[in-house]
């Protein structure tokens, strides 16, 4: 039940300048969602668009409306009820053509719906009541007119004329709140996903930094061990050279010293690379810290949106309750008007019988 979206697109929304009636005024800050809605309970179609919490389009479609394509990506239509002209700027001509096709389709549907006749006219009374012959109807017309005007309470009719407007306002407010609530929930979910992604990236960078730091510490210990061993070997070579040791032993020690020096150089090169990696990781950690600050703002925004969403839900429930109350009052007043109408019919029948009896009595008296 209620209104359901049947077609959705995106476009920039414009309205005609109410002062000049010539220039366009931009109603949306950017391209917004524009949707066709169908109300099955009322068999009506509307075009609705909301920019943030502001409704920029609320147009009920009738079979008298016409959508005009004025350029390759722009079209417009006039809404007499809203006393304005709406304009839509699309991203592509294909989107405009799809919208035109849907507008024509909906317009045809409203034309078909308008062909159905109601047994009750615009004043809430039946077109005619069969009370007797045409002569009797003409005779009793002047009397029943005053009787009908006396029995029909204008106080009862006045609220019914205002009820549709009040109900439509509540329905519009209800739709606006639903759309704002859906957008608020979508934004909150999007920011939650971004926040979780940033948390995961931060955790991975922290783990990599810890591993690199541990490796550097291990290499530092290994380098210190190599340097110490190299110093011992050099000292031993010097002692053997001073003592004129065997050439083979000295050559072997020199070879070991050379190998140890190469190992030390390799370790130092690797440590330099790891130092650069650590510096890079620290920079990324700093960037992640900035992201964390942004995350905090997002968290606060999410909390704010949740509070706003809760308020919108409460307001939506309140609006729905008010709408139900208005509908109940409208139904009650319609029933009361129907009851009054039936009473009028009974009174008219009684007057007709009285008139007929008086006519018969007059005829009898004339014959006698």
Task: Give a short synopsis of this structure.
The protein is α+β, with helices and mostly antiparallel strands. The protein contains 4 helices and 8 strands.
Explain what you see:
The protein has 368 residues and is α+β, with helices and mostly antiparallel strands. The chain is 68% helix and 15% strand. Strands 1, 2, 3, 4, 5, 6, 7 and 8 form an 8-stranded antiparallel beta sheet that branches. Strand 1 and strand 2 form a beta hairpin. Helix 3 (154-242) runs antiparallel to helix 4 (247-367). The two termini are 70 Å apart.
How many alpha or pi helices? 4
Give the averaged pLDDT, no decimals: 77
Strand content: 5-15%
Structural class: alpha+beta
Q: Judging from the principal axes of the Cα atoms, what is the shape?
A: rod-shaped
Helix content: 55-70%
Q: Write down the secondary-structure element order.
A: EEEEEEEEHHHH
Unreliable residue stretches = 115-165
Instruction: Tell me the distance between the termini.
Output: 70 Å
Q: How many E-type strands?
A: 8
Q: Could you tell me the radius of gyration in angstroms?
A: 44 Å
Main β-sheet: number of strands, strand sense, barrel status? 8 strands, antiparallel
List the SSEs and their pairings:
Layout: E1 3-16, E2 24-26, E3 32-39, E4 44-51, E5 54-60, E6 67-69, E7 74-79, E8 84-89, H1 93-114, H2 134-151, H3 154-242, H4 247-367
Antiparallel strand pairs: 1-2, 1-3, 1-8, 3-4, 4-5, 6-7, 7-8
Helix pairs in contact: 2-4, 3-4
